Amino acid sequence: MNNQLLRDLDELVSRSIITSESAAEISRYYDAKKSSQSGKLTLILAVMGGILLGSGVILVLAHNWEFIGRGVKTLIAILPLLTGQVLCLIALMKHRENRSWMEVSAILLFFGIAATISLIAQIYQISGELGDFLLTWMVLALPIVYITGSSAVSLFIIALATWFVFEKQEYATFGSEMGNRLPYAYFLILLCLIPKYLTLLRNVGSSKNSFYLHNWFFVLSTMLSLGAFIPSGYNQAVLVSSAYISLAGIFYLVGKRELFHETRLFLNPFRLVSLPVMVGILCFWTFAEFWTEAAGRPGIGQLLRVSFTYLCLLIVLIYLVVLFKNISKTLKTGIDLVTLIPLIFLACVLLLRQAPFMGIFIFNILILVTGVIYIYRGTSRDHLGYLNLGLIILATLALIRFFDTNIPFMWRGLMFIVSGAGFFILNSMMIRRRKKIIEKSAL
Amino acid sequence: MKKILLYAFIIMAAAQWFVPVQMLWSRHRVLNQGELFKFRTRPIDPADPFKGRFVSLSFDDETVFVKNGSAFHYEQDVYLILGTTAGGHAKIEKVFQHVPSGGRNYLKAKVNYASKENDSLWALALNFPFDEYYMNEFKAPQAEKMYRDSSRLNGDTYAKVKIYNGTGVLEGVYINDRRIEDLITQ
Description:
The complex is a heterodimer.
Chain A: H1 2-14, H2 20-62, H3 70-94, H4 99-123, H5 130-148, H6 151-169, H7 185-202, H8 208-228, H9 237-255, H10 269-284, H11 288-295, H12 300-303, H13 307-330, H14 341-351, H15 356-380, H16 384-402, H17 409-442
Chain B: H1 2-33, E1 35-44, E2 47-48, E3 52-59, E4 63-66, E5 77-84, E6 90-96, E7 107-116, E8 122-127, E9 132-134, H2 139-152, E10 157-164, E11 167-175, E12 178-179, H3 180-185
Antiparallel strand pairs in B: 1-3, 1-10, 2-3, 3-9, 4-8, 5-6, 5-7, 7-8, 10-11, 11-12
């Protein structure tokens, strides 16, 4: 289409529709756009190449070439690290402005660290825990992020940190000595990446993809890792749910910031992940079993001896601070009910433990209202994403009530019919409305 | 700016070399100066995503009987003085909670669990720090089979380990005094 436009420029100038200056400007604009797009493609291909090359080297060397002597093997073992460092140095000295060079050399160095350490361990029969190895790898790779400015390595480190938490989790058991030895190094690693994230945030105009990818990795990593922090045997549904719903509440409030107003829904993981988490937890607590189990749990004294309890309390506290700061700002424009879901949840599980039916009723209504809010947002803003998110929430509510034997079949059936019909009718209404708008504008 | 980056790079590169060099140096010292022990073992074949295929070794003599079992907990570091049985295999002679004095060679291990046997005796299950023997990816599965075949005929399977100042380095796994790799090649 751009080529067609460029071909038509001469004709447009000759017919005096646009001036020759405008034609030159249009031509310059498309030239610049084309070169920036091909630069991005080169970068993506270079990063993919770096990842494949690095992982390939690790796999080839993991074969364990036994016909090679220990001395030669040691020399081969140091090559991945040496090559990565030499390439990084060349990139730093000669190609600092070339993002592809910087990213690829950084990725190769990142994998080089792992390859060399693993090979030395393999050659010299050094046993060790995978979790400790991952931690060493992350610590040694962290400076690469700042020296080369590599976003790919930063993303790899977030992924490794998540893996590290799950590796360490199996040792943590509630009530044992290990119950308190949780992998808190995870937080230190994430803290070390905050300056990188802030740099991406400042330059969001020029490095949009890296910024969005960091958001996704950060949100998914923290959500998943929180689960791994729970010591096994720690059956504290109230605390675990409070921590999850509060973390989701914090993310939801972050996702509402101005920065994300213009972005598409799938580029806003803060919102896209936190909403299902909040609704999911509310859904769990619409079952009476959760309430009865929560009533018969050990006393606060036992819980205070476990460090995970303090982590839960900290997350709840952060949510409350962020929420009240946000409320004072949004008093005039109107408060978003979804931001209050964690607060309502906390109040209900604390105050209504003796009257679970009340809590269950409130949570059902809350899920219903959230669904309706999103359907309203979808229709009023002509946003299919919001509309379907709202419909999915309503469908989920209908689905979980399917298993609720206390509700008559008739009502359950009606709920399904209404939510199913909602999908068809509202989506087709919106698509028809869009078509009409296009037709009108064409006229 | 370029100079600062260069200095930062040099520091980073040095730190990245420190870990493998330290691993190499400490292993060389143990192999050159360590005392040799033979631990009776049972190899099985798992894999590590980075280091490749290995045989996981569980040892026959990883449990020791102590009187104060309640003083030990999971993952606790303990220090073992080793001796040799009449058959030439390693056996634990004493367990210490701190580095033993007297200049005797010792091995640092970790506590797995302590279970009460009777009123005065506890069985202390330990984890030795050399439980992974890295092998060629095609030979590791065969090693496990070879051990199973040999154990049916009461074969003697053991790991040769050099021990020096708490560290143990695996030299090889043997079945009836022959290196497992050589047996597989046959």
